[in-house]
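Notes from the 1:1 (GR / supervisor)

We went over the backlog. Supervisor wanted to see one worked example end to end before approving the batch request, so GR pasted a single chain during the call. The sequence is below; no edits were made to it. Supervisor asked that the structure be written out right there so they could see what the output format looks like.
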Amino acid sequence: MGATSFENEYRGPLDMKEAYREVKDQALYDHGHSGYSGTIAETPGVIIDPATPLPVDIDVAEKRAQFWEREDGGQPTPQKWEAAWAVPLKPIPDFVRDTKGYWPDPDRSQPGWLFYGLASC
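Structure output shown during the call:
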């Protein structure tokens, strides 16, 4: 079996572990409990990304989540069968939700978390 990367954004009042639990439960609901889904549901827990312990903008967090894929990064990286990594996100005060009838975007006017890592598939 292989592995694939995932990124999940959470926005709201929950702390890191509660937000992780909510995102993981949603992935289990969406993709089932059979394993090898390639989602955050396959991770055993969550840790804070040591390179970004303070809240950052979503663009910075997404770059960090993609940076680890490079071999020359020199930073520790998430691994398959290990905990998801979390980056705290700053709120965007002037964010306006525009769903246009599709899936709603996360409410980025609130603080949140970006969870990322590798999952078995």
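Supervisor's comment: The chain is about 20% helix and 20% strand.
Batch request approved.
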